Amino acid sequence: MSPDHLSPDNVLVITFGDDPENDANAYQALTDLEQLDSQGQIEIAGAAVVARHPDGRIDIKSDVENDPFAGTATGGAIGVLLGIIGGPLGMLLGGTYGLLAGSLFDLDDAVTTESVLGEISQQVQPMRTAVLAQVDEPGPEVIDAAMARLGGQVMRRPVSEIEQEIAVAQDAQRKAEREARAELYKARVEKSKEGAHAKVEELKAKLHRSEAGATA
Question: How far is Cα 128 from Cα 23, in angstroms, rounded to an integer?
């Protein structure tokens, strides 16, 4: 299908309820998306079945990619998105951007819903599988109907919004890394000064003992 007839470009998060037995439907959903793509009803740039560990890490269980978007499932928008929502450092949007150490996004923190990335992160629940996909679709009806047959719920957000937040997240991470390096350098300098001072004091003490011994 010609890209001229596909609009808009969305990232989809497809989940399958709280029953762990429903997680198998995620793999079927990925297959169904591929079939819709082969039929020309949608166009997939990249898609993956993912699972979140209790510690927040994200595993890619299965993925697909389409030429000329080779590598997109693990290296393009979906790959970058998964790296952010499953990484140790990310964004928290509550009117302003901030940094969280540890697991990205507190899933119980309501303010994360003000962020597109926060919304996506909340959808990928611990110990559950989900499908993330970047697709061009003429409208939501085709995919929504296919996923409904599997009991899947579809959340879609424009790629442009996600790319904007990814850019901010990457800038924030680089800033945090610079600040961390500066703090480490400062600590080394201070430690060196303390060490040099201690050595001088030790030398003074030795000289004092030598002078005391000479005058005894």
Answer: 6
Q: What's the CA gap between 19 and 152, in Å, rounded? A: 12
Q: In whole angstroms, give the CA distance from residue 89 to residue 37.
A: 34
Q: How far apart are CA 153 and CA 31, in angstroms?
A: 16
CA-based nearest residue to 44, from 26, 22, 70: 70
| Residue recorded with tokens 């011994």 | 213
Domains of the chain, by residue range, sit at: 3-174
Question: Using N-to-C axis directions, what is the helix angle for 159-215 and 77-85, rounded to 10°?
Answer: 50
pLDDT tens-digit profile of 34-92?
Answer: 999 999 999 999 899 998 888 777 888 887 655 443 433 445 678 888 877 776 543 33
84-136 tens-digit pLDDT? 777 654 333 222 233 333 333 443 444 444 678 888 888 888 888 899 999 99
Q: Which residues pair with 11 in a beta bridge?
A: 134, 157
